[in-house]
Amino acid sequence: MPDRTPICLLVDDPCPLIHVYRCHIIDVHHEPPLTKDGRPLLEFIPNDFLDRFCDVMERWGIKGKISIVPSPGGRGDVVRGIEGFDPALTRQWLETAKRRLGPLCDFCSEGITHNLAVNLQTGGYFDESENDWSQHQTRETLTPYLIRQLELLRDAGIDANGVTSPWVFGIEVESEYIAAMVAAQKAVYQRDFSWYFLHAYNDRPDTRPWIAYGQGPSTLVSIPANMDDYWWQTINSPRTDAAFVSSVADNMLTADGQCGAILEVLNAGGWPVLVTHWQSLFSNGLETGLAALDVLGQRVQQHLSDRVAWMTCMQLAHLTARR
């Protein structure tokens, strides 16, 4: 392990049942819920997709982080259940995630709704996305917002040891956001060591995690992505053929193991941190993105098992702090 470079997969936007990408296209972007090629975006993502995702992660030992949006689209939440569905389906999703992904991934919050910002005073919603709302807040308003999302996960039985930004939540007030994350982790989980995902540096392959906050007993590590979500294209394509699936994986590592973004990061001295989204893997029901992840996992094992070791975000954070 010490001789190998860390590699990590960040999966944004997972949640039980709700297709949050569809929700924020409607509520935030005010656009019709269609793919770029004109197909209606499916309203829900069934629980058995999580099972198939777990199959791929387990098959190749892929590690990283899985966000859980605690009140996806504002349609119920992970404690009470998703509106319109038997609460048992939400519990089933969470139990599967904990049982099968817990050994491989860290869990984290990603906003409250990943949609419109919640007015904590009234329980209603602001006319802004969580992203837009966050950019003019302070630690005094961000802290209770982060506490709410972490409390929902905690009360659903999830240990969320990090925070992911929906969109680029807090990037314009990052020092306030950092202080709020530190305070919220302490308040909800009594945790002094944590991590967050906000930054994506697709043009900086040499990027590695860094300590964003270190005062007294508290440490917060920033985990940046350093390559694109190459899976995203599968949302907007009806293709599911093997050549297309292979071409998606080629962006990260070719079949012969000679080219791709992962090698570019390794050769630049960075730690490969891949990022994708639940909707990118679901591919509007075709699951082409998940098939490409399966191919990529096999290629990494075949060609790079002596160079890289899959790690969770918390493992990256501890490694960063030790170094």
What report would you give on this structure?
With 323 residues, the protein is α/β, with parallel strands linked by helices. It has one domain (5-231, 273-278, 308-322): TIM Barrel. It has helices spanning 20-27, 47-60, 87-101, 130-134, 139-155, 174-189, 242-250, 261-268, 278-282, 288-304, 313-322; strands at residues 5-12, 17-18, 44-45, 64-68, 76-77, 81-82, 105-109, 116-118, 125-129, 160-164, 193-197, 210-215, 218-222, 273-277, 308-310. A hairpin with a 6-residue loop joins strand 8 and strand 9. The radius of gyration is 19 Å and the shape is globular. The model has no long low-confidence stretch (mean pLDDT 97).
Q: Topology of this structure?
A:
Blueprint lengths: L4 E8 L4 E2 L1 H8 L16 E2 L1 H14 L3 E5 L7 E2 L3 E2 L4 H15 L3 E5 L6 E3 L6 E5 H5 L4 H17 L4 E5 L9 H16 L3 E5 L12 E6 L2 E5 L19 H9 L10 H8 L4 E5 H5 L5 H17 L3 E3 L2 H10 L1
The mean pLDDT is 97
Give the second-level CATH assignment, the architecture.
Answer: Alpha-Beta Barrel
Number of separate structural domains: 1
Task: State the name of the first-level CATH class.
Answer: Alpha Beta
Number of helices: 11
Distance between the termini: 15 Å
Short description:
This protein is an alpha/beta fold and 323 residues long. 38% of the residues lie in helices and 20% in strands.
Features:
20% strand, alpha/beta, 38% helix, 323 residues, two-stranded antiparallel ribbon
